[in-house]
Amino acid sequence: MLQRIPGLAARATLFRPFSPSLLQINRLQAQVSWPRTRTIALRTLSTAHVRLEDLKGFQSLALPAQMIQSISSKGIAQPTLIQERAIPVLLEGKDAILTAETGSGKTLAYLLPILARMQALKSQGTDQEPSEPSESARNLDALSPTALFVVPSRHLAIQLLSVIQAVQPTGLTALLAPFPADFPAHQFRRPDIVVTSPTFLVNMSDPQLKQFFRRVEFVVIDEADTVINSYYNISLRIMNLGLAKRSPGRSHRPQYIFAGATLPPVKSDRERSPRALMLKKFPGIVTLGTPGLHRLPPNILELFVRVSDETEGETPSSDEFGTKLKGMLSLLLTRVRENAEHEDGPERWIVFCNSQHSVEQVHAALTAASTIEGQNDDLSPGWLQSIPLHAGMPKAQKDESLATIFGQPQTALIQTIVSSDVYARGMDFADVSTVVNFDFPNDAAGYVHRAGRTGRAGRSGEVISFVTKADERLVSFIEAAASGDTSNTRLKIHDNFYESLGSGESVAETSMQAVSNSVKLPLTGVLSRKGSLKKAIKRKAQRSSGPSS
Question: Which residues contact 4 (CB under 8 A, 6 or more apart)?
Fold first, then answer.
């Protein structure tokens, strides 16, 4: 039976939901067998059962009228599910864990109530000032904010600051730290908001960090699993400072909010996962989740492309890179010609690689391919634009790449952003039609975050993954979750999954029932924090093959 997804072109007809075909790439001819009607897994999430009329408007969430008008002017008229659940709770000042699928609106879910509370404190004149610091500590005290936002990297901090500036009430100052060398930081005293990454805080001594926290009333750690896993010690210090006895004149501690798309539940009392640390430090913390947690949105289609030899079966690992590269070029050419036939506009793709070296190699190959002219004048030079992004790039080159993506009009038929995983979390690249896993991610969390760069804010999207023999076991988990296959105990829905969504008023009964009735399973049980499943498989294969000669 044919099934069609609303909003997609008619050519995206689907056969056999939950059973994606593994397209065979012939590494000798470098051609992809891409059927006219593509066979892709149909993902039907429980969030589809939440009716639009059941969601309340922003007017019912006790936000200031000026703020509602501001976000409405940006085209945001209706709160998402996580925003509807989180805003009333956060307005009450409760500590909370916000955990929902990528692209669900978590940023505004915590940002709007914090800005509303800050505005109220400022207008009422009730924002208390601690006693004056010593002369030696005044530099850090001058930068002590009312609200501190911590994100994993500077580029995410810049993105968050731009969102704050777009929706913040007048009269609030927001700064990015660390500051550029020529920034007149001495002219700013006690900003309302500081957005930073852990690297700004990690080198502060305990007295310095304590002084920086003197005025903090709100602490937000976004992409909390990444921040805590990568910067455990500074994360622990940030939590301990808020829980410590307040300085004279302060009768309460800050409100703490943790946000993330992959925060699996705690499995044992001895666990040292990010969620375990949160629950240990904040026993009364509230979990606010959505039924789509640890799953891709329903508007994202997935395609797994098996890298193999037509005659020999598996492709030797030494040939995998070239085979995948030729296969991706075939996909790009096919898409350009399809779009021309159907008069579709330009597209933006993100191509994810597992290493900086792979990013550079793929970028160089795509840049060379952009000069290819097609037969019968169907392609002209410049039809493809490649932009590299990884942590090892010089800052100037990185800024140039981001400026091209966010600040310049797209001229190529397809723009490809070739990126490492450092840009897989949190970055809101606009209008991404397709995500390509050139190198398959090392774990299920990486897959969820990469795929979340497309299909955002209700748009349709597509995820194409190249699958090698080393990836097959992890891919089988992802496919089993999509098909609702409960034969694997790691994918069964259990009480811990409900714990990861929250309980009581934070999750409506109707939504919980929708999860129970859904044929799909979350990837909660596969989100291991103890290492990469893919690497473990490789280690096992190496042990079984014995020492190399």
Answer: 10, 12, 13, 14
- Do residues 384 and 413 touch, judged by C-beta distance below 8 A? yes
| CA dist 477 → 23, 76, 528 (Å) | 19, 36, 13
Alpha-carbon distance 403 to 25, whole Å?
35
pTM: 0.77
- The Cα angle at residue 354 between residues 230 and 98, in degrees rounded to 5: 45
Q: Are strands 313-314 and 300-309 parallel, antiparallel or unpaired?
A: antiparallel
Cα angle, residue 157 at apex, residues 156 and 163 outer, rounded to 5° = 90
Whole-number Å distance between alpha carbons of 19 and 479: 8
Distance (Å, whole) CA 418 – CA 426: 16
* Helical ranges in 383-485 per DSSP H: 395-407, 444-451, 472-483
φ, ψ for residue 543 (rounded to 5)? -65, -40
Query: What is the dihedral sign for C-alpha 76, 77, 82, 84?
Result: positive
Judged against a pLDDT cut of 70, whether residue 508 lies above it is answered with: no
User: Which DSSP helix (H) or strand (E) runs through 347?
Assistant: strand 347-352
**425 token code pair:** 């979390």
Q: What is the pLDDT of residue 296?
A: 75
Interval 141-166: pLDDT, tens: 678 899 999 999 888 998 999 899 88
Q: Which tokens belong to 306?
A: 């098996």
Q: Are 89 and 286 in contact (CB under 8 A)?
A: yes
**Tens of pLDDT along 271-329?**
778 888 999 999 889 999 888 788 777 778 888 888 865 445 555 555 788 899 989 99
Domain spans of the chain? 23-47+299-493, 51-124+138-289
Confidence of residue 222 (pLDDT cuts 50, 70, 90): very high
Predicted local confidence at residue 256, as pLDDT: 97
State which CATH number among 3.90.1150.30, 1.10.3720.10, 3.40.50.300, 3.20.20.240 fits the domain covering 51-124+138-289: 3.40.50.300
Instruction: Tell me which residue of 470, 493, 476 sits closest to 540, measured CA to CA.
Output: 470
Helix (H, G, I), strand (E, B), or coil: what is residue 508? coil
